[in-house]
Fold:
Amino acid sequence: MNMKDEKMTFKIFNDEGQEVECEVLFTFESDETKKNYMVYTDNTLDEEGNTKVYAAIYNPELDKQKLIPIETDKEWKIIETILEQLQQTVQEQANNEQE
Structure:
């Protein structure tokens, strides 16, 4: 079984009360905060054409998940750093494939 082909999805209700399907991009545990984070998308685009990405705190031991908002700048900085590193890795891989 190829895990890359298996999408993890879940549904949430947006601010307008509409059900929206979201796709989990990745999860990680921060050594610094000792919390687990989920980074996900609803596959919509922002004004510049970039895919919108969201993040929340979650408990991997719960069957029924409750996403907890991230409220500190420190936690957002951790997530932004990881996203930047992933984006750089993807770009490097794409460049290597073109050579």
